[in-house]
Structures are given as C-alpha cells and as structure tokens.
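Journal club prep — side note

Before the paper discussion, L.F. wants everyone to see what a predicted structure for a comparable chain looks like in token form. Sequence:
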Amino acid sequence: MENLRSPLILTQNMTKPLNISIIEDNKSIREGVVTFIGFHEDMKVCSQHDSVESFLNILANPNIEKPDILLLDIKLPGMTGIDGIPMILDKLPEVDIIMLTTYEEEVIILKAICLGACSYLSKKARLEEIVDAIRIVEKGGSYMSPNIAREIVQHLMGGRVSKATILTKQQKLVLEKLVEGKTYTTIAAELFISRHTVKSHIKRMYKTLYVNNKAEAIAMYMRGEIR
C-alpha cells in the first residue's frame, strides 16, 4: 500500500515552476538565458520578446501564462526598458522586474529601481548568477551584481542622490488619495482599477519609500520628500 501511495505523495509535494519572461533584443543573449533557465526544474520561461511593445501586446490575451519574474533590458527597439517599467507594472503589479543590461551608470540604475525594478544584473554576469538572482527575488529579496552595487555605493557616498523619492504616476495618485483619507475601495473606483491593484501599488510604494505603513508614507508626502 505504501508503494501505491508514494506517487500521489510526490505529486502533492511538487511545486509549480516559477514563470519567467524575458525582454531582450539581442537574440544570442536571449536564447542563451532561455536555454540555461530551461535546465532548472523550479523555473521555466513562459514568454520571450525583443521589445516592450511585444510583451505588452500579449498581456491583452487573458489565457496567457503571466510571469512571476521579468528579465528586462534597457536599450530596446522602440520603447526603452526604463520607460516600459511603469506600463508593465500597471498591467502586472505583482511581477518582479530584474534589469538585465550593459548600462551600469548609477543614475540609470537608480531610476530603474525608483520606478519599480527590484534587482539589477549586468549582462557580464554568469548565467548561474542570473538563476541565483531569480531565486533570491522569488523569496522576496533583491539582487545587484557586485560591480553595480559598488557604483551605487560610491554614488551614495558622493551625496549626489536627491532626498526626494520617485514614485510611478499611478503610485503617486494612490498615495495622494490616501493622504485625502480615502479607502482602498474608493481609490479603486476613482482610478478605475481593482481593489487588489490598489493594494499592489501600495505594497510596491512601501518598498520604494522604505516605510512599513500608510502613516509613514503620508508623513513623507507631507514633508515634500516624494516626487
């Protein structure tokens, strides 16, 4: 009887693979990352694209598998990855975005992070490092390639970072309505989005502001520390 039950037990313990999408116009880089991810049973590539526009177009199909994590390049044909971040998060507020790029200028890195990207990987990174970063992000963490992290530290040490924190347009709208004392349900109705989406925007806003609750976020807004 134990042998008969074993396959059922194994099936129940199996977890669903993590869905990964990648937007990268360099075909050889894209295919290399896709192939390497395919070697790992705990993750799979559900879609691959060479532009932000192509990725946004498939989101109109309600039957597609939506990604848990998105690997996003910056320099792309058409819309840049930086410009695409707010639009992607508006459609997929729960997705975690890992920037995968050759750009290592601290201003660009900080802009991507302020707009909602959670991690930043150099294209010089080993494929193993990309997979490690995906697993760290899946567990709720953030990852930065060591050389990029060094640039950020040096930038911060130089005191060139504004105290103002950049929110996406939608996050700022939600925050402004919180300042006005409105409920999640009212905010959802006024912005024509779901209550779940409101909560997702607030969750990401807290991460950007490094606050733990609504009162702290409102206090930062009132002090003029948000733009």
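L.F.'s comment for the group: Confidence is low (pLDDT under 50) at residues 1-13, 159-163. Keep this in mind when we get to the figures.
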